[in-house]
Amino acid sequence: MKLIATLLSAAVLAASAFSACAAEEKPAAAAKPDLVKGEASFATCAACHGADGNSGTPAYPKLAQQHPDYLVKQLREFKSGQRANAVMSGMVAALSDDDMKNISAWVSKNKAKPGFAKEKDLVTLGERIYRGGIADRQIAACAGCHSPNGAGIPAQYPRLAGQQSEYTAAQLTAFRDGVRKNSIQMTGVAAKLNDREIKAVADYIAGLH
Questions:
Q1: What architecture is the 123-206 domain classified under in CATH?
Q2: At a CB cut-off of 8 Å and minimum separation 6, what does 105 contact?
Q3: Tens of pLDDT along 89-99?
Q4: What is each CA distance from 46 to 52, 88, 98, 110, in whole angstroms?
Q5: 35-108 domain in CATH 3.90.1640.10?
Q6: What is the percent of the chain with per-residue pLDDT over 90, rounded to a whole number?
Q7: Same topology for domains 35-108 and 123-206, yes or no?
Q8: This prediction's pTM
């Protein structure tokens, strides 16, 4: 009986030790973004991107309703220099990773205001490129990654719907010309587009919703 009791005690101790080790090895849950801090920090961004992330200036992107993971990635790359922009590099220099997550989480929860296409003579060309690409030049359809309605895919591809056409055209040109270097995929696509095609697809994107 003493032997059985000893074996049972050993088994209980072993199970307890295993449970303790498992608890220690389990990664701590990531802290949720602080939306209050995010809103406060975004105040310095509002001059360019609008109080709620809906920029009214064509040169600056709308950030409202953008995927937060995408925004965090861009902020990190501005800070590291992987994405070059003198203004943004200065703005993010003092931000911690938590600051970036808080800001991105807050602005992504705001609803994006719809945009509209301006170039009626180009919108058909823009739609054709966005939805079907240009097969004979091996240009992929934008919709394949950014979805037919421009909603994008969270954590993978950004939302484009309603984005400022001037900003989108500037980014496509920067990818094409090798100025923006933080997406091999976009560099490959934009490298095959001419100015008229870039303007057309950017204008079509502005009217997506």
A1: Orthogonal Bundle (1.10)
A2: 33, 35, 38, 68
A3: 999 999 999 99
A4: 7, 13, 19, 13
A5: no
A6: 82
A7: yes
A8: 0.85
